[in-house]
Design brief:
mainly beta
Length: 126
């Protein structure tokens, strides 16, 4: 089992950058695929990006491709989401999630992830 804590959210102007971190506690972090999702008010939680267990593969939603970058440091049990060129429509609560798999399939499916953090607010002003 793994516990996840996100940090790094905040208020930023459009065009700015933020880096979110997701720190994991518990055993076996390096065997977990990690995902980031976000949820804006009155909207469904949506996929943002995913990184596989080794960090060798990353996947992004079309809306963030080219602006957001995922990385992970398995020695530190941490996943990072670097967000550049932020837009007001990126405003949401951002959640990290973990699934215990070495496979890359279904990385954008919420139900594939058994463990979730509490979320961190990102607000982008215009």
């Amino acid at each position: 089992q793994v516990q996840l804590v996100e940090s790094g959210g905040g208020l930023v102007q459009a065009g700015g950058s933020l880096r979110l971190s997701c720190a994991a506690s518990g055993r076996g972090f390096s065997s977990y695929g990690m995902g980031w999702f976000r949820q804006a008010p009155e909207k469904e939680r949506e996929f943002v990006g995913a990184i596989n267990w080794s960090g060798g593969s990353t996947y992004y939603a079309n809306s963030v491709k080219g602006r957001f970058t995922l990385s992970r440091d398995n020695a530190k049990n941490t996943v990072y989401l670097q967000m550049n060129s932020l837009k007001p429509e990126d405003t949401a609560v951002y959640f990290c999630a973990a699934r215990q798999t070495y496979r890359d399939r279904n990385y954008s499916v919420k139900d594939e992830y058994a463990y979730w953090g509490q979320g961190t607010q990102v607000t982008v002003s215009s």
